[in-house]
Every structure is written in structure tokens, then in C-alpha cells.
Amino acid sequence: MRLRNITGSREIIADSKWCRETPKDMAGKWREHFGNDHPLYVEIGMGKGRFLMDNAASYPDIDYVGIEKYSSVLLRGIQKLEEEPLPNVSLIRMEAEYITDVFAKGEVDRIYLNFSDPWPKDRHAKRRLPSREFLARYSEILVPGGTVEFKTDNRPLFDFAIEEVEAAGWDMEICTYDLHADEELMRNNIMTEYEEKFSSIGNPICKYVIKRPD
Ligand code: SAH
Questions:
Q1: Which residues line ligand 1 (CB under 6 A)?
Q2: At what angle do helices 132-141 and 155-168 cross, to 10 degrees?
Q3: Which one-letter DSSP state was computed for residue 88?
Q4: Domain of 196?
């Protein structure tokens, strides 16, 4: 997702209490930051943040950190939080590649990837957020038994992601090629902006839940 560059968005982020830029000093301090010992869930590539905020409002006993690389997109999330503050949310503007600088070993309980960029060229496979290179980074920051949940309507990306799960030796807990047809999985499903858009034009939504090897 890319919005027109909004003048001053970097400055607004710098002044916001909701958001920071690649906060390396936070590694190992997230629970202190939220002032509790609740589970910590992270969404990478949160876009405007609808999924993150709806989750945070529904589950006040879980802390949520949203990561987004574009400040112009993140700005929408900050504006939403200014209007409707959520004490269990924090946002980061950063490139996900550096995620192990921002969270300590075993600090995160769950990672969400929603409608991640496909990077269709083979030579860009390492940039895909469900790639084995990224799974290795997630493995470092997740607790033993921690999970990654991935949703997309992009079938080639999903097929690639499944191969990467096997290669990385993670356990497949849930895997569906048509989430919206699965009554049980839909019971607690919170829609993302892209999910709403692509399911409404008839695209099936794929989803997996995978567990980190111990
Ligand atoms: N999760 C949202 C948005 C999906 S679009 C939804 O489902 O509606 C993918 C988003 O991920 C974009 O906003 C893009 O800027 C962000 N993104 C992609 N790669 C990223 C990376 N490596 N680090 C941080 N953000 C990333």
C-alpha cells in the first residue's frame, strides 16, 4: 500500500506518543512500556491499521504492536489512535528486516502477516515476509510455541509460503485456501482492509497458522 507522500508525516510520527521509528532501545522492554505482563502480538505491514485496532479493541488483555514501513500510511493509524485512544497499541515505522533489533529473544507471542507484498520476481523472494529468511527472524523473537498467522488472496505467494514453512521446519497448525467458507475459522475472524476489498470481488482468502519449532 502506498499513499501520496504526505508532507510532514515523518515529523508527525516523531512527535506522536503512539509511534516511533525503529526503536532499538525497546528490545526487551515492551512489557514495561505497556505496564503489564500481557501477551504481545505484532502485525507486520499493518497498512492503515484497521485489523490491529479492531483486535486491540476486542482484546484489551493483549498488547499489540503494528509495524509499517511507509510513514504516509502509518499516519492514518496515528490519526485513528488520536480519535480513539487504545492503551494496548503501539506503532513502529520501520522496515521489517530489522525486527530482531526491536524485540528481544522470546518477547513476542504471535506475529500477523496480512496481505503482504508479493515481490513476484524470483530474485526478490528473500524480501517476501513469509520467506524462510524472515521466518528465521521471527523464530528469534517468538516464544517457544509462538505462532505466525498469514492471510492473503495471492495464491502464488501462499503456495510459496507453504513451501517455506516446510523448509524452515515449522509446524503447520491450520491451512485453508478459502477462509471465508470455513465457519469455525470465521467465528473469530477480524477483517483487514485488503481482505474486505478482495473478498468482496470474489477472491478466496488463504490463511495459515504455523508454530515455531522449539
Ligand atoms: N495489512 C494491511 C495492508 C496490506 S498491504 C491489510 O491487510 O489491509 C501491505 C503493507 O505492508 C503495506 O502497507 C506495506 O507498506 C507494508 N510492508 C510491506 N513490506 C514491509 C516491510 N518489509 N516492512 C514493513 N512494512 C512492510
A1: 1, 44-47, 67-70, 73, 95-96, 114-117, 192-195
A2: 60
A3: T
A4: 3-211
Q: How far is CA 122 from the centre of its chain?
A: 23
Q: Which atom of ligand 1 is nearest to the CA of 70?
A: 15
**How far is it, in rounded angstroms, from Cα 107 to Cα 31?**
9
The structural domain count of the chain equals 1
From the candidates 15, 37, 63, 117, which is the catalytic residue?
117
CA of 69 relative to ligand 1 center, distance in Å: 7
| Reported pTM | 0.96
Q: How far is the CA of 117 from the centre of ligand 1 (A)?
A: 6
Q: Please give the pLDDT value at position 39.
A: 98
122 included as an active-site residue: no
Residue pLDDT, tens place only, 44-57: 999 999 999 999 99
CATH of the domain at 189: 3.40.50.150
Residues in Cβ contact with 51 at an 8 Å cutoff, skipping those fewer than 6 apart:
43, 112, 114, 190, 191, 192, 193, 195
How far apart CA 111 and CA 51 sit, in angstroms, is: 13
- Looking at 3-107, which runs of residues are DSSP E strands? 19-21, 40-44, 63-68, 89-93
